[in-house]
Amino acid sequence: MFCRRLWLKPGTGFWTPSQQGAHNLASFHQASLLPQRKLRGLLFPFSELEPHLACSVDRAHFQLFQPSVEDIAKAEKLFSPSPSHKIDYHTSAVRMEHAPSQNQPEVCFIGRSNVGKSSLIRALFSLAPDVEIRVSKTPGHTKKMNFFKVGKAFTMVDMPGYGYRAPKDFVEMVEHYLGSRKNLVRTFLLVDGSVGLQEADMIALEMCEEFSRPYVIVVTKIDKCRQGVLLTNLLQLQDIITQTVGCFPQPFLVSSLHFSGIYLLRCFITHVTGSIQLGDTCQS
């Protein structure tokens, strides 16, 4: 089944970035030139872990969102800037009353300090290297809600990290945002794959549940730990997800450094914001 998805139909075009400074794997077009096994791991990182799972483990929830390569290529166009489709930092806000008023769909990213939120957003926007996204090795660097507009399609919001060096009014800021942002269509809760779900993450998860907003868990830094550690943390995380109401059953695995899972996540974002219609039927 995978091979069927891996080849493009005749006449399907890629959107090749012309901007200098883009990562060599920023474009799916470049990734498609890799050997098939390498490409498979970049598109669907879970495929690298699946052979190491016990036969008794249900794999279905790890493979719910399986778009075709045509859909992935279509989604990539929305992350590629053009004169008629500008991608740029829009504004920042320290309180909800300072947040921009807009109607286009919005997705936000929350997570512990130093979980890799800004790095992930930079990887998602890697086809638009002129977009300024500040990434710091110092935990708690992001202190404001940072809004990035993707043309007229949707907006992505980088929220301050919780935990170490979090803004004093973090809880008030995020609760107000989750509770009142009418155009918010999906929250992405980031969890560090090398350490798994922490107590602070559970509080954030419960907050998402409390406001009955649909959310997704993104497992970051999958390149920073051994497969055994990642699998253990992933299975524990899956046990928690099955007990939730608002969480999408499939966690998304990503490496912002190696671009694993980035193309799939781009496609999911464009799908849930209504920016593209998928050719295949996928859950969301």
UniProtKB/TrEMBL annotation:
The keyword GTP-binding applies. Residues 103-275 form the EngB-type G domain. Pfam families: MMR_HSR1. SUPFAM superfamilies: P-loop containing nucleoside triphosphate hydrolases. Its cofactor is Mg(2+). GO terms for molecular function: GTP binding; metal ion binding. PROSITE patterns: G_ENGB. InterPro entries: EngB_GTPase, G_ENGB_dom, GTP-bd, GTP-bd_ribosome_bio_YsxC, P-loop_NTPase. Gene3D superfamilies: P-loop containing nucleotide triphosphate hydrolases. Keywords: GTP-binding, Magnesium, Metal-binding, Nucleotide-binding. GO terms for cellular component: mitochondrion. Belongs to the TRAFAC class TrmE-Era-EngA-EngB-Septin-like GTPase superfamily. EngB GTPase family. PANTHER family: GTP-BINDING PROTEIN 8 (PTHR46498). This is GTP-binding protein 8. It comes from Coregonus suidteri.
